[in-house]
Specification:
The complex is a heterodimer of chains A (about 150) and B (about 150). Chain A is mainly alpha-helical. Chain A contains seven helices and no strands. Chain A is globular, with a radius of gyration of 16 Å. Chain B is mainly α and about 150 residues long. Helices cover about 55% and strands about 5% of the residues of chain B. Chain B has a two-stranded antiparallel sheet. In chain B, strand 1 and strand 2 form a beta hairpin. The radius of gyration of chain B is 17 Å and the shape is globular. Classes of the chains: A mainly alpha (about 150), B mainly alpha (about 150). At the A-B interface, helix 5 and helix 7 of A face helix 3 and helix 4 of B.
Amino acid sequence: MAHADLAGWIERHKDKLTSRWIDAVRADVRIQSDADLSDEGLRNHIPAVIEEVCELLRSATPPTISNTQEARVHAYIRFRQGYRVRDLVREISLLRLLLLDHLAQSLFEESLNVATESFVTAMRLIDAYIDEEISYAVSVYTETMKPHE
Amino acid sequence: MWPFDGSAVPPPSALRGPVSKRNKGKPWVMLEQDEFDKFVENYNQDYIYLLTRASRGEYHCLISSFTVLKDLYEVILKLHDTLNLEFRVVPYPFSFRASDELLKGFGFSPDQIAKIYGFLNFVKETHGKEFEQILEEGAPIKCVKVGGA
């Protein structure tokens, strides 16, 4: 079952979600790597990541290599920017929270008439997508920095 | 160097290894880490080569080359996911839409980046589909004469 309505609900608020995510990252004192980045540098690839999440919901397919491209771009750019991996994980985690909170609000939108089953499936897809990015990021950081035998 | 000549891919005979307990009795594919590193390095070189062509406005047959390269990229990720291999060399993320930061990181100037994005528009105009959609469909694209993609 596709979740086009939920995807549309997220996509319509993409800019607001991005701004809120920037505020959340700036406010999180545990994240240090963002200090030298402008808002534009911090925003980076997040709108494209949100769009990709929306595509995932529309197609209602689990994350695969093909439909998590923007997530990998985001992680890779952070790696190149010298971000600490724990900061990257935290900022991705903040994005997950924002997306799930926003998704939860859809339950109160009468016009959307979201079924519980659809909500739960969408939630799991977002969760799995974010986990894919974290897994990739951890690989890139840890495996590259490991001394070669 | 492009066009891809297949030299980066180990021959099938080299990929067959002993049956492993780890693979539950199925014959498993062996690929040495060094070979994998080389494979990734070649992919990265090809990727930059194709982006460089796009940055010069040399769009002829480029979509066909990107289609092949995307398959290679997915093979790399699949090998990494399923075998005991690591990203000692990180493959460049395949997607480059809305990735100014990424493209700047590769050393492309604003003019060159504009031409790279111009390629995406060119594909849309000549094929009536988005670049990503063509890649996703994976259908072979025939090169058209002068000025075609």
